[in-house]
Design goal:
The complex is a heterodimer of chains A (113) and B (114). With 113 residues, chain A is mostly beta strands. Chain A is built from no helices and eleven strands. In chain A, β4 and β5 form a beta hairpin. Chain A is globular. Chain B is mainly β and 114 residues long. Chain B contains no helices and eleven strands. In chain B, a hairpin with a 5-residue loop joins β7 and β8. Chain B is globular. The termini of chain B are far apart. The relative contact order of chain B is 0.33. The model of chain B has no long low-confidence stretch (mean pLDDT 92). Classes of the chains: A mainly beta (113), B mainly beta (114).
Chain lengths: 113, 114
């Protein structure tokens, strides 16, 4: 079964702690993305990667970091510098061609206590 | 950045009714995508549109890429309870640098009354 997996589904952290969200895809897609979703809002791009070992900041990258060491994996770290980290985080992937379609994982809900 | 205006924000309809929602922008888009998101899940692609004027159907869903390339609409015919969710439009703008990034509308929340 091809698809995108995100883990964990729910994540709780204390203020001041870093936390890493996992995203894995077996679609052989070159490009991967991280979005943040807040209630009643559209999706906002945090980081994206068009190829292994390369990534670019999106619209709201402050307080987040990523790595892309493998084609299949694009983990997102929410650092303590992120002032309001409680949100629903979505990972997506695409073939990486011009105007291609993005496919989403099931999401991780992060709550800061 | 680019903005998409999606309307209406929410809809309450009776089962069996038809639904229409749309997205508009002041900028030209090269692609229009429509996604559905159910509570606690990721968005699922419903329809992708790539050419101005294109009209595409997926079962009871029909979407069109506006001729001006600045708008798109999604229609759902004969709604059923499982149509409940949030529908997002998204698109790629014309600039090459932005072609990998999608701009999203804020969504239309659909509720179906049995």
């Amino acid at each position: 079964d091809g698809g995108i997996t995100q883990s964990p589904k729910y994540l709780f952290r204390k203020e001041g702690q870093n936390v890493t969200l996992s995203c894995e895809q077996n679609l052989n897609h070159d490009a991967m993305y991280w979005y943040r979703q807040d209630p009643g809002q559209g999706l906002r791009l945090i980081y994206y990667s068009q190829i292994v070992n390369d990534f670019q900041k999106g619209d709201i990258a402050e307080g987040y970091s990523v790595s892309r060491e493998k084609k299949e994996s694009f983990p997102l770290t929410v650092t303590s510098a992120q002032k309001n980290p409680t949100a629903f985080y979505l990972c997506a992937s695409s073939m990486g061609t011009y105007r291609d379609t993005q496919y989403f994982g099931p999401g991780t809900r992060l709550t800061v206590l | 950045g680019q903005q998409l205006n999606q309307s209406p924000q929410s809809m309450f309809i009776q089962e069996g009714e038809d639904v229409s929602m749309n997205c508009t922008s002041s900028s030209i888009f090269n692609t229009w995508l429509w996604y559905k998101q159910e509570p606690g899940e990721g968005p699922v692609l419903l329809i992708a549109l790539y050419k101005a004027g294109e009209l595409t159907s997926n079962g009871r869903l029909t979407a069109q890429f506006g001729i001006t390339r600045k708008d798109s609409f999604l229609n759902i015919s004969a709604s059923i309870p499982s149509d409940v969710g949030i529908y997002f439009c998204a698109g790629h703008t014309e600039s090459g640098a932005g072609s990998y990034q999608l701009t999203f509308g804020k969504g239309t929340k659909l509720s179906v009354i049995p």
